[in-house]
Design brief:
The complex is a heterodimer of chains A (about 200) and B (about 475). Chain A is an alpha/beta fold and about 200 residues long. Chain A has 8 helices and 9 strands. Chain A has one domain: Alpha-Beta Barrel (Aconitase, domain 4). The chains are: A alpha/beta (about 200), B alpha/beta (about 475).
Chain lengths: ~200, ~475
């Protein structure tokens, strides 16, 4: 995974609550067996009319945001289906950061596995960003976002921060603990109540 | 110190506990299906990794399998490819697969319990958010993404922050337990607590009403924990749980020894602390029907489509969402729920496709005909459910009434196979999600119980199943 560096970009304001992963990537695109190429289907039914004509009133179709790497949105983003294709689609489209007051658990976790930084901010700070969607600098190392000279800190779990900054392969990290896993398995297998 | 059921299962599966609060948790059972696994197996191959515990891993194909005649080839070539890829992956990595022709094929959350793969006190994961279903057996069951599927395949473990605990008490006696179902209980809960209230928590459902429910009804409740945003839903196992599993194919040989242990150990201790609590009294609840585009947008069948401000209770974001939902659903505030005409009826999904669901739904339509204005289908949750239903003659009851009787799979719950709604079509569905486009682009989904779906099929619009005077 690519290490996460500082990002500076205009934020795309998606002013909706409870955006579910069915909207982020509809089911007809889950049949692909690779992780790439999902960006063209991101927010498919909101972005395109009958799958063809871009809908002018949808924010991703506003040329102002065409190079945006930051998605700004509302509560409970990524709820519903566990499909990681939602994270793959956001990443493939170009988003590296999603800022929201809250995220659904599985989606939140999926983001980190793909080098996307989901930032939880309080509703007031989010409201300010929506009122004035301008360029935002995201600094993960220092856990801050800066816009119009104002810097706001954000919280993030330390191990998740490390994974993103170093672009770690989760499985390789876990396999370093293989002896512990084996030990656990042995202790269970020795018990009478074992289906091992 | 007194612990909750969740904490007991969690503690007994921790392999490593880090200082920063996240733990490496051992996984006893990994269920795999065709849609969220291909990229995980690819990752293993790329890094020359093996599946650590093929003996703890079980696979089936459910999401995009067609539900018509199984002897016919799969028309959709991309679906066919995904199915072939799963076959190859299971063969290459030594994983047991219940394929499209297996008598054990079915929706992963239906076959797990049915085969005794799901066991109390275990940890279970699957690349599917409705894995919470297995919590009905007192198993700690999480839905995970594909990266974690790969992680579990390679290590049999998962990294997690310990979730918080959420107690949901369900108390009282339903006026009519045939008409007011487990689906109405869980929809009533979500309607009140919202779709994000469970975020970061594991719910434990407790109380006398829960004890009264059958295992299949408990599965319906736990299944929709994710619709309340929870990581998992749990119900403490009891004699009903043990009896349900007794004799099933994959239970351990010394099953009764397990039962003795589970009976003593798998409950929340008296006085155990929950981080959150909510109580639902069921004495006066009505059959539920969703009107909007998330499961909290639900009301009584006796009610009307709400006005956005009435629904939003002062939250401007929710009000905007309700306006958008009504527009998408083509509904006007104030319309009586029973005046909403329907084009389709779907009985199926991991929420409501088990034998009891089909028995209850069939009793409503027995000897009657569905409205000529709509098309209705029943998709049993598994091949075993289908076979048992046919032994009871349910297929005949449904077919005589005008329903289509299909093969098992996820089908129109998410419309990855050919079973989809056309744009603008309105469906009474026993599934779990009424998101925009969920059952087909432009399709409009109303979530209901199986008996409400049957009643709606007869009338061509929603009706209060209590008025049919069946019970």
């Amino acid at each position: 995974m690519e290490p996460f560096k500082k990002i500076k970009s205009i934020a795309t304001p998606l002013d909706k609550v409870n955006v579910d992963t069915d909207q982020i990537i509809p089911k007809q695109f889950l049949k692909l067996v690779q992780k790439t190429g999902f960006g063209q289907y991101l927010f498919y039914d909101w972005r395109f009319e009958n799958g063809e004509k871009p809908r002018e009133d949808f924010v991703l179709n506003n040329p102002k945001y065409c190079d945006s790497k930051i998605l700004l949105t509302r509560d409970n983003f990524g709820c519903g289906s566990s499909r990681e294709h939602a994270a793959w689609a956001l990443l493939d489209y170009g988003f590296r950061v999603v800022i929201s007051p809250s995220f659904a658990d599985i989606f939140y976790n999926n983001c980190f596995k793909n080098g996307i930084l989901p930032i939880k901010l309080d509703s007031q700070s989010i409201e300010k960003l929506f009122k004035n969607p301008s360029e935002i600098e995201v600094d993960l190392q220092n856990q801050t976002i800066t816009t119009d000279g104002i810097t706001t800190p954000f919280e993030i779990e330390s191990h998740r921060k490390k994974t993103l900054l170093e672009g770690l392969d989760d499985i390789a990290v876990t396999l370093q603990y293989e002896d512990k896993i084996t030990q656990y398995e042995k202790s269970k297998a020795n018990s009478k109540l074992s289906f091992f | 110190m007194s612990r909750t059921l969740f904490e007991k299962i969690w503690d007994s599966h921790v392999v490593i506990q880090q200082d920063d609060g996240h733990s490496l948790l051992y996984i006893d059972r990994h269920l795999v299906h065709e849609v969220t696994s291909p990229q995980a197996f690819d990752g293993l191959r790329m890094n020359k990794r093996k599946v650590r515990r093929p003996d703890f891993t079980f696979a089936t194909m459910d999401h995009n399998v067609p539900t018509n005649d199984r002897s016919l080839p799969i028309v959709d070539q991309i679906s066919a490819r995904q199915i072939q890829v799963l076959e190859k992956n299971c063969k290459d990595f030594g994983i047991e697969l219940f394929d499209i022709h297996s008598p054990n094929q079915g929706i992963v959350h239906v076959i797990g319990p049915e085969l005794g793969i799901t066991l109390p006190g275990t940890t279970i994961v699957c690349g599917d958010s409705h894995t919470s279903t297995h919590g009905a057996f007192g198993a700690l069951a999480f839905g995970i993404g594909t990266s974690d599927v790969e992680h579990v395949l390679a290590t049999q473990c998962i990294w997690m922050e310990k979730p918080k605990t959420f107690e949901i008490k369900v108390e009282g006696k339903r006026k009519n337990s045939h008409a007011i179902t487990a689906k109405d209980i869980i929809l009533s809960i979500i309607k009140q607590i919202g779709t994000a209230s469970g975020t970061g928590t594991v719910i434990e459902y407790r109380g006398d009403t829960i004890l009264d429910l059958t295992m299949e009804q408990r599965m319906t409740i736990c299944n929709m924990s994710i619709e309340a945003g929870a990581r998992a839903g749990l119900i403490a196992p009891d004699e009903k749980t043990f009896e349900y599993l007794r004799g099933r194919k994959y239970i351990p040989k010394n099953y009764e020894e397990f039962v003795n242990y589970w009976r003593e150990n798998l409950t929340s201790d008296l006085g155990a602390h929950f981080d959150k609590s909510f109580t639902l009294h069921v004495d006066n609840i009505s059959p539920q029907v969703s009107w909007g585009t998330n499961p909290a947008m639900t009301t009584d069948v006796t009610g009307t489509v709400p006005f956005p401000d009435e629904y939003a209770k002062g939250n401007p974001d929710e009000e905007k969402a309700a306006i958008k939902a009504l527009q998408y659903m083509g509904l006007k505030p104030g319309t009586r729920m029973t005046d909403i005409p329907l084009d389709r009826v779907f009985i199926g999904s991991c929420t409501n496709s088990r034998l009891e669901d089909l028995i209850e739904a069939s009793q409503v339509i027995k000897g009657k005909k569905i409205s000529h204005k709509l098309r209705a289908m029943v998709v049993p949750g598994s091949q075993l459910v289908k076979k048992q239903a046919e032994q009871l003659g349910l297929d005949k009851i449904f077919k005589d009434a005008g329903f289509e009787w299909r093969e098992s799979g996820c089908s129109m719950c998410l419309g990855m196979n050919p079973d989809i709604l056309a744009s603008g079509e309105r469906c009474a569905s026993t599934s779990n999600r009424n998101f925009e486009g969920r059952q087909g682009a432009g399709g409009r989904t109303h979530l209901v119980s199986p008996v409400m779906a049957s009643a709606a099929a007869l009338a061509g619009h929603f009706v209060d199943v209590r008025e049919l005077d069946l019970y």
